[in-house]
Amino acid sequence: VDDDQTVVIADVRNHRIIQWKNGDTTNGQRVAGGNGAGNGLHRLNGPTDVLIDKETDSLIISDRGNGRVVRWSRRSSTTQGEILIDKIACWGLAMDEQRYLYVSDHGNDEVRRYQLGEKNGTLVTGGNGQGDGLNQFDWPRYLFVDRDHSVYVSDYSNHRVMKWNKGAKEGIVVAGGQGAGSALTQLSYPYGIFVDTLGTLYVADSWNHRVMRWTQGAKQGTVVVGGHGEGAGANQFNGSIDLSFDRHGNLYVTDRSNYRVQ
């Protein structure tokens, strides 16, 4: 969500990035891809994440099906992107205040940090094979980096969210980690995450069709929205897979199988 409340969405099955201006629920605007699946620079293939780089007024996109991270200018004349990183099983993206780019690599179960323009990056979390150890992941999905450069990772198939402090050799379980389930101590295939300035963690708990909030050090979370079963009602989700806040504190949730954002 941009500062003017424009919502930018990775439309994975349509192989495009689309944006919706605040208050306009009928006319989305394609801003990257949308030319069918493919590996040309004018195409995307199953994009899974997008972030706004305000410094260059561009979009950085996890082009998962092509195994690359690409950048598209937000200028209206833009017809193709440029490759920033390739040959990576990318999923989630994050950028810190120094404009280092973090990418989750679900093929190697790790997260790498890149200076823009750099091709190889530095390993910051994981990289110890697939597993449920504190130094491992099982399909890392989305990322969040806080002001202390701690990296939060939704560890999808381990049903937990991990926090890796800067320079740490292993992570800390900050949500879930009690197996898949719907208890307040559990998550079921977590996706999108967000951490506020107080260290409170918000998690898109996809298979439980809810968003959870975990305060710092808590042993269990609370349900913020959803949690009323799978459905299309205004108080329900059918696969809550990502979330974001705008600068006014409003929460936006990607409701996958209802093909909507709430």
UniProtKB/TrEMBL annotation:
Sorted UniProt keywords: Glycoprotein, Repeat, Signal
NHL repeat extents: 131-167, 181-217, 228-262
Name listed for the protein in its UniProt record: NHL repeat-containing protein
Gene3D superfamilies, sorted: TolB, C-terminal domain
Organism, as annotated: Rotaria magnacalcarata
PANTHER family (UniProt xref): PEPTIDYL-GLYCINE ALPHA-AMIDATING MONOOXYGENASE (PTHR10680), SMP-30_GLUCONOLACTONASE_LRE-LIKE REGION DOMAIN-CONTAINING PROTEIN (PTHR10680:SF28)
Pfam families: NHL (PF01436)
PROSITE patterns: NHL
GO CC, any one term: extracellular region
Superkingdom: Eukaryota
